[in-house]
């Protein structure tokens, strides 16, 4: 198989990505992982021909080809619109109104390609009082209520990396939106704009918590509920070697398995009713004492091949080496770099990492030729600084 082999469920789909950071590139990575031909439009100032042929270290940019373009120049605008004319979708993550000022907004792009799906990735959305302002993952989580629910009881909220907002509520939602709109276009619908706002996506991800609140099964204070570390049977524990276990024995039969295998309780009188939250502090302390009697790996050997719902808390280096993840190929290696493999899996249209992350502008001439620019026009664009 060559780098150019079109495989995966999105084989044959062409996507233009206006370079950005975080959730936009993650969306483009997901589409490329699923087989789409993604063209990343990088800034001319980022182009370094001496680096061509060496994979860029940013894994979010994998699977693409790159063209260096000055979006503020007339020639750069001409190039992007030529790419758009032959594309199925576009991804951009600028603040609202920026692509319109560049002459590359939905109206201009749909004028050259009425079937285009125009994907927009922002934190606050394209409209609303906060839309013009900057923000980051932690801000979007704060506004939706999600951040309020993450942290220990009586302590301040804890940012959950930027996985929940940027990538779960942002990039993944835009990828779903783009694929859905592409499906509609192939069914005869016109091209359209997908407005993916992280605040909207995080709110959707929290639907279950809103449902539990309505059912009277969730309290607003953090760290006192079943799934937020409040329950002693759904928490992490330190072991004798300072490493940790994750315990997720929610259902009674799984908890019973955990009790049977560990010999809990370690002391008489500590076998309290786990269904009564009033007993949770005492149960947590009893479990904590027990787990501190062995190392993480000793507990893992005892509990992993069972329904006790216990797993070792692995670090970034350990995770790819875990036997289960290794057996599934959850991580893969490309050009000497270990990284997460494309997901999910498809039985009839398998995916693969076709290309390493490109250096900015590495495929400029190739992509200009595909877009219909002859060598003379390409030379003119390069001389004018419109491409690099």
From TrEMBL:
What domain of life?
A: Bacteria
InterPro entries on file: CoA-transferase_III, CoA-Trfase_fam_III, CoA-Trfase_III_dom3_sf, CoA-Trfase_III_dom_1_sf
GO MF annotation terms: transferase activity
Give the region (Disordered) as residue ranges: 328-388
User: What's in the keyword line of the UniProt record?
Assistant: Transferase
Q: List the protein's name.
A: CoA transferase
């Amino acid at each position: 198989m060559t780098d150019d082999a079109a495989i995966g469920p999105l084989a044959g789909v062409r996507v233009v990505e206006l370079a950005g950071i975080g959730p936009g590139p993650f969306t483009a990575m997901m589409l490329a992982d699923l087989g789409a031909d993604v063209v990343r439009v990088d800034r001319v100032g980022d182009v370094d021909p001496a680096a061509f042929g060496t994979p860029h270290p940013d894994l979010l940019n994998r699977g693409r080809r790159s063209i260096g373009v000055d979006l503020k120049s007339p020639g750069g605008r001409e190039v992007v619109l030529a790419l758009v004319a032959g594309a199925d979708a576009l991804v951009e993550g600028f603040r609202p109104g920026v692509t319109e000022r560049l002459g590359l907004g939905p109206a201009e792009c749909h004028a050259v390609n009425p079937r285009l799906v125009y994907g927009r990735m922002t934190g606050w959305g394209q409209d609303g009082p906060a839309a013009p302002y900057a923000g980051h993952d932690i801000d979007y989580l704060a506004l939706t209520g999600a951040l309020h629910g993450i942290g220990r009881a009586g302590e301040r909220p804890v940012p959950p990396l930027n996985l929940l907002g940027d990538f779960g509520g942002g990039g993944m939602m835009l990828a779903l939106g783009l694929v859905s709109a592409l499906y509609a276009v192939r069914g005869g619908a016109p091209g359209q704009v997908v407005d993916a706002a992280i605040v909207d996506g995080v709110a959707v991800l929290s639907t279950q918590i809103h449902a539990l609140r309505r059912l009277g099964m969730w309290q607003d204070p953090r760290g006192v509920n079943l799934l937020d570390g409040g329950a002693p049977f759904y928490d992490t524990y330190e072991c004798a070697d300072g490493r940790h276990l994750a315990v997720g024995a929610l259902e009674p039969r799984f908890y019973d398995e955990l009790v049977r295998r560990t010999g809990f309780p370690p002391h008489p009188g500590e076998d309290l009713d786990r269904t009564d939250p009033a007993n949770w502090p005492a149960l947590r302390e009893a479990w904590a004492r027990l787990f501190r009697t062995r190392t993480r790996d000793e507990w893992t050997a005892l509990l992993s091949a069972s329904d006790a719902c216990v797993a070792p808390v692995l670090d970034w280096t350990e995770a790819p080496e875990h036997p289960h993840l290794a057996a599934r190929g959850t991580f893969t290696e490309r050009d000497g770099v270990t990284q997460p493999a494309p997901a999910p899996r498809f039985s009839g249209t398998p995916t693969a990492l076709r290309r390493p992350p490109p250096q900015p502008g590495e495929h400029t001439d190739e992509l200009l030729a595909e877009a219909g620019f002859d060598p003379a026009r390409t030379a003119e664009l390069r001389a004018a600084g419109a491409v690099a």
